Amino acid sequence: MGLLSLAIWLPIVFGALLLAFGRDEHAGMVRWIALIGAVLGFVVTLPLVTGFDTATAAMQFTENVAWIARFNVRYHLGVDGLSVWFVLLTAFITVIVVISAWEVITERVHQYMGAFLILSGVMIGVFSALDGLLFYVFFEATLIPMYIIIGVWGGPRRVYAAFKFFLYTLLGSLLMLIALIFLYYKSGGSFEILEWHKLPLPMTAQTLLFFAFFAAFSVKVPMWPVHTWLPDAHVEAPTGGSVVLAAIMLKLGAYGFLRFSLPIVPDASQAWAGFVIALSLIAVIYIGLVALVQQDMKKLVAYSSIAHMGFVTLGFFVFNELGVAGGIVQMISHGFVSGAMFLCIGVLYDRVHSREIASYGGVVNTMPKFAALAVFFAMANIGLPGTAGFVGEWMVILGAVQFNFWIGLLAATTLIFGAAYTLWMVKRVYFGAVANDDVRGLTDINYREFLMLGVLAVAVLWMGVYPKPFTDVMQVSVTELLRHVAISKLN
């Protein structure tokens, strides 16, 4: 069993054990077992980055054995510069989520922790799978634990939000399954994704495949106009659910564009690039304006996530190194920043039991340590230089300007809208005089909360000040992807 299998199956095994044998009367032990499983899952991902060869675009740490021999389906895993950081990010965020729920979740603790650990392993499987059917199994399997997390531990409208999340993402994925079956027969009976990259497909077939993949991945991102499930899911989900949803699950759709759409149907991707860019700019501008009028902090950050993910898809479809690498960097930084933003909202909700901006005011007076960290993450959310939020956005803007000046100019408006809605929330929640008795009675964050927010703050600052380790790992793979797309265009 290789490192990738360990990264996938360690958390799944720990999660299954908690579901099978965990009991609420042993909640303390359950939490420690969940933490051990999450930490072990994170530790085994570290050699993937420390031992990664940045000089090659080939798949590394590969595992390839027969799974369903009759249909030539293989258990084929591997990572390259496009995917390796997301394996590490998933395992890291899982540790944070387990710590965040330590004192907050008091009922069905074993089921809550078990669901998150299983979800972690399955998401790592998505980023590692090199067999089309294996990818699809992992991709769809992510729905089940998240559906349960929202539906059981969510807010008053949790059932509605969970069903909406499940139906949107499931229906989009059915078209992808048809596309995978078509490619299986077209390639002579192979589900190998890397073999599909070499298929000489006519333009009509490429166009149909492009929209089949687009249906699955655009919902997952989510892109406008199929984004409406996300605010509902975020508002109703428990804090840990919102963190994983924003930090990791949205990235599954964007990653799908990199692994399937661009390399398998490169001509169609270029032909329909204007369509994707237009939808991405609508997400950046229109959704930014929608975020401005939100009264619920979770909804505001949810709409902010849609706008930031619009930046990601924009970067991918301008077809230059700055844009694609910037989109990947934006995915990683958004994982840190959005996760931290939802954790901060969770800290306030645990004390006041309200997400409404109007319920707060002057929090800095009673929670100075927490306010300092929360404002720092807000600055990262608007792309302040020196934070992780700046690097990816700046690279995508430069790549967009290189592609077309006016598209770059429109993309840059996110710096204005992002600053507007984020600073407006910060001003009303954290600054000014103490607004009410609820705020007056607040106590500052404890050691557990300081640990989880502090670790994320270090990650955000490190990536903002020194992004080179991140860009070095992905550079060769990005160059090879664009070379493949360019060669296809010439042919």
Tell me what you see in this structure:
There is one protein chain. With 491 residues, the protein is mostly helical. Helix content is 75%, strand content 3%. It has helices at residues 3-21, 27-43, 46-50, 84-100, 109-128, 132-141, 143-153, 158-186, 193-196, 203-220, 229-236, 239-264, 266-271, 273-292, 297-316, 321-352, 363-366, 368-381, 388-403, 405-430, 437-440, 447-465, 468-490, and strands at residues 60-68, 73-79. Strands 1-2 form a two-stranded antiparallel sheet. A hairpin with a 4-residue loop joins strand 1 and strand 2 (73-79). The model has no long low-confidence stretch (mean pLDDT 88).
SSE inventory with pairings:
Elements: H1 3-21, H2 27-43, H3 46-50, E1 60-68, E2 73-79, H4 84-100, H5 109-128, H6 132-141, H7 143-153, H8 158-186, H9 193-196, H10 203-220, H11 229-236, H12 239-264, H13 266-271, H14 273-292, H15 297-316, H16 321-352, H17 363-366, H18 368-381, H19 388-403, H20 405-430, H21 437-440, H22 447-465, H23 468-490
Antiparallel strand pairs: 1-2
Count the DSSP helices: 23
- The overall pLDDT average reads 88
Strand content: under 5%
Fraction of residues in helix:
over 70%
Described by strand count, sense and barrel closure, the largest sheet is:
2 strands, antiparallel
Task: Tell me the Rg in angstroms.
Answer: 21 Å
- How far the N terminus sits from the C terminus, by CA atoms, comes to 41 Å
